[in-house]
UniProtKB/TrEMBL annotation:
Lineage: Bacteria, Pseudomonadati, Pseudomonadota, Alphaproteobacteria, Acetobacterales
EAL domain span: 472-721
TM region(s), chain numbering: 45-64
Superkingdom per UniProt: Bacteria
Keyword terms, alphabetized: Membrane, Transmembrane, Transmembrane helix
The organism of origin for this protein: Pararoseomonas baculiformis
Name of the protein described by the UniProt record: Bifunctional diguanylate cyclase/phosphodiesterase
Annotated Pfam families: EAL, GGDEF
């Protein structure tokens, strides 16, 4: 029996006794009133009634605290979250809290005396297996072993039910709504299972209490009984937390391979010791699998230091290796290897074919290394080899020869064998340099010289190479100053009618009289100017000065009809150049027909698509075009068709072979015939002898230029002839 029912029963007994006493007293008073005379019966009845009232009041005073406590207890139980119902030994409902969820109960009250069997029958009214269900429920009610269970209500609530057999054989059932608590448990479980970390609950002895699925997966499908059995190895110093781990801080660990699970890298964090559910203490470990992250980091480091195409160490690793070489006692050699023709392969066969060549070249290069040597890809088609202990040019040259022979084996790309040709430059410690930068620079100078020599040359560093570079750098600096100051001059070479000696035109030739150590020839300073990006500025100066001089001649009523200027490829590709020419012509009052722009034939052959729009615009503006060096090896009829030039200049190599060279005479005859057929005037330059003049005249070439008719001179000397 619930404790709150004892006072109630006592109150009921007191009320019953009081009512019995009252009835007995009333009966006694009635008997006395009938038997005794009125004079005696009235006082006696009044006294008896007074005594009875006093007794009732005294009994009420004595019972009031119990009555009050029973009422308060009943109100507290009715308002609490715990609900109860009490059934007698015959399963009759004796008492229940108002909100108790009993089977078959509706919204109205359930009268006392209702049997559990009737409640169940009402609850399973529509169930075809009602008898079986009712029998099961009654068996569960009578089963004292089933003291705790959960019950799901139709409205979705979940009740936690506790059942107790009382001393008198009654059954008390207490229920608590655990819907919210169960929802919280489900959310916690979802978080527990959904976090990306493995969670492991361990007791003080390191025994497994609980774990989520991620830990099971991390450990190969089975969680070990203890932490020790997992083989977890902490990387780093011990901490003061559970199992020697630091609390509140991440540490790295290693889980060895277990079954089919490979070795794993993990980040481990631990809680402090926490109180357990049944006493004792526990700790919660969280393990985050970072194996893939470690692999990705290792791969990123590899890509940072290696070329992704060939797998060779890259330029950064080369710089480190060359520093290590210079720090070594035995010295060594650096070989720089440049593959030829990769761009042509990319253009003709595609980028994939070029990548195949680079990969194959790197493989062949590695095969020629000695133990301790290293190969690198510096970028593009340039490779490097560092050979420790290889200190002499002869030894490095022998290695370079082996590399060249290995690369020379044809590589089949589907269109026939493609040989790999390489230019190699090498330098050595300690003879050629004192530090890493100097050694690399020396090898680079040797490679540059090998590339200039062509045909897969091998060049060892020579101090003269450094001196040449120093001279070129000094020349470049002075060139920049000359461009800024306008320190150039124009020399004019006459173009004459070879039959009469009449001046027809003049070519403006650039001169630099104030170079370092005196005048510098155009063949020396123009390549440096082009390499330094100075040609657009120089071309602008030449255009300005040539038209200024033409305007001066015109004003004096003298000078050639046409002035020719040489323009660099960089300027010929500039879409703004025609507008600049037109503006300069207008400023000096020179007609467009008086200006002739000379185009080297090899430039036209190489950049015809890039320069064609600019040249066509110049032609449309009336400027004359002259195709220079025609017939020297790169000539093509297509150039004449796409670029309707006003004049063709015969290459001086043909003129030099006249009159005796059969090959030169054949080329002259073909070019002259072509020029006549296309009605394009032909001019020969480099004419130095009468025999050459006669041979040219015999083929119909009448306009000539060369030392036979005068060297390049100042403007005033040209018109004073």
């Amino acid at each position: 029996m619930p404790p709150e029912m004892a006072p109630t029963r006592r109150l009921r007994r007191v009320a019953a006794l009081t009512a019995g006493a009252l009835l007995g007293s009333l009966s006694l008073a009635l008997v006395l009133a009938l038997l005794l005379p009125a004079s005696l019966s009235v006082p006696l009845v009044l006294g008896l009634m007074a005594l009875l009232v006093g007794a009732l009041l005294l009994g009420l005073a004595i019972a009031w605290p119990s009555i009050r406590r029973a009422a308060l207890l009943r109100e507290a139980i009715d308002r609490s979250a715990v609900r109860y119902a009490v059934f007698g030994r015959d399963r009759t409902l004796l008492d229940h809290s108002p909100a108790h969820d009993l089977p078959g109960m509706g919204s109205g009250p359930v009268p006392a005396g209702t049997r559990l069997d009737d409640l169940l029958a009402a609850s399973f009214r529509d169930d075809p297996l009602a008898a079986t269900a009712i029998a099961g429920q009654i068996a569960a009610h009578e089963d004292d072993a089933r003291a705790e269970y959960e019950r799901n209500l139709p409205d979705g609530r979940i009740m936690q039910v506790s059942k107790r057999r009382l001393a008198g054989g009654e059954v008390a059932r207490f229920s608590l709504d655990i819907t919210s608590a169960r929802a919280r448990d489900l959310r916690a479980r979802a978080i527990h299972e959904g976090v990306p970390a493995a969670i492991w609950h361990l007791d003080r002895e390191g025994r497994t209490i609980a774990a989520n699925q991620r830990l099971t997966d991390l450990l190969g499908g089975e969680v070990p009984a203890t932490l020790t059995e997992s083989g977890l190895q902490q990387l780093g110093s011990q901490g003061d937390g559970p199992f020697g781990l630091p609390t509140g801080r991440e540490v790295e660990g290693v889980l060895p391979a277990r079954g089919e699970a490979p070795e794993r890298r993990v980040i481990v964090t631990t809680s402090p010791w926490l109180p357990g559910e049944k006493g004792g203490e526990r700790a919660v470990l969280m393990l985050l699998d970072v194996t893939r992250l470690h692999a990705a980091q290792a791969q990123a480091v590899h890509f940072a230091w290696h070329d992704p195409l060939t797998g060779l160490p890259n330029r950064f690793r080369f710089q480190q290796a060359i520093l290590q070489l210079t720090a070594a006692r035995d010295g060594g050699s650096v070989l720089l290897v440049d593959l030829a023709g990769i761009r042509a392969v990319n253009d003709s066969l595609g980028q994939r074919a070029g990548d195949t060549i680079l990969s194959e070249a790197s493989r062949r290069l590695r095969e020629q290394l000695r133990p301790g040597d290293a190969a690198f890809r510096l970028g593009g088609d340039e490779f490097a080899v560092i050979a420790a202990g290889l200190r002499t040019p002869q030894a490095a040259g022998a290695m370079a020869g082996r590399i060249q022979r290995a690369l020379a084996a044809p590589l089949d790309l589907g269109g026939g064998g493609v040989p790999l040709r390489a230019s190699i430059g090498h330098a050595h410690l300690p003879d050629d340099a004192e530090d890493a930068e100097g050694l690399h620079r020396a090898a680079a100078l040797a490679l540059a010289q090998a590339k200039r020599q062509g045909n897969g040359s091998v060049v060892a560093y020579d101090p003269e190479l450094g001196e040449r570079v120093a001279r070129r750098l000094a020349l470049r600096e002075q060139l920049m100053a000359a461009v800024a100051d306008g320190s150039f001059e124009l020399a004019w070479q006459a173009q004459v009618d070879a039959r009469t000696g009449t001046l027809r035109g003049a070519e403006a030739l650039l001169r630099w009289p104030g170079g370092p150590g005196g005048p510098i020839s155009p063949g020396e300073f123009l390549p440096e100017a082009e390499a330094a990006g100075l040609m657009p500025s120089i071309d602008a100066w030449v255009l300005e000065e040539a038209l200024r001089q033409k305007a001066a001649w015109t004003a004096a009523g003298t000078g050639p009809e046409v002035v020719g200027i040489n323009i660099s490829p960089a300027t010929l590709r500039d879409p703004e150049f025609p507008a600049r020419v037109q503006a300069t012509l207008v400023r000096y009052g020179v007609t467009p027909e008086a200006l002739e722009v000379e185009i080297p034939e090899d430039v036209a052959a190489r950049d015809i698509d890039a320069i064609a729009p600019v040249l066509n615009e110049l032609i449309a503006d009336g400027v004359r075009l002259s195709l220079d060096d025609f017939g020297g090896g790169s000539s093509a009829l297509a150039h004449l068709l796409r670029l309707p030039v006003d004049q063709v200049k015969l290459d001086r190599s043909i003129v030099e072979g006249l009159p005796g060279g059969a090959r030169e005479r054949a080329i002259l005859r073909a070019v002259a015939t072509l020029a006549r057929g296309m009605e394009i005037p032909l001019l020969a330059e480099g004419v130095e002898t009468e025999a050459q003049r006669e041979a040219l005249l015999a083929e119909g070439c009448t306009v000539m230029q060369g030392w036979l008719f005068g060297r390049a001179v100042r403007a005033e000397e040209l018109v004073a002839r």
